[in-house]
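Write out the 3D structure for:
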Amino acid sequence: MSWHLHERMALVDALREAGPTAPTLCAGWEARHVAAHVLLRERSPRVGVGLAIPALTPQSDRLTAALADTAREPADFAELVDRVARPVSRWTPVAWAGDAANLVEFHVHTEDVRRGAGPVPPRVLEPELVAALWEHLVRAARLAYRRSPAGVVLVVPGGPRKAVHRPHDGHGTVAVRGEVGELTLHALGRGAAAAVEVVGAPEDVAALQQVLPGG
């Protein structure tokens, strides 16, 4: 199964339940901005390039804000979310990449919407989805923790563990413990909303938190 399709629909359900102006974990964004971002990421080359090239990020942000502004009212927002629900053509680059490009993206944005107003019960994820998410998390984590002076080992209680970043500048290694979905949120900068425990020497924990706050 292509698990990104499963997580696309989880995101759509979260957006529909939240409504257009619900807060999210993305600073300055309401649910309508998340919906606009996801849609344009897949369908607008200008936004896609802006997400990849920092110098063009302001252009991407402007286009996202403009689309979000058209979806302030519930009916307009519902139409926007319906567009998000429809997968892109299989001939587009984002579709080609499948889970590699989309699984973590959709999972994290689902939680951005679900947890924007405060803590909520965690979703119950199917074991096969957890396994797929772990595979892609390990790859994404190497980039996510690259600026940390402390080394990082991801640890799932009763499950796998993986060293994803080596220490440098005289630091040791910390363990980030939690379920796979929570570890994914931490790696993608949502540590303040993730149910994780960061274990290690205080100076190493502080070094990680300095470059990835909230964990």
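Residues 72 and 93 are 30 Å apart (CA to CA).
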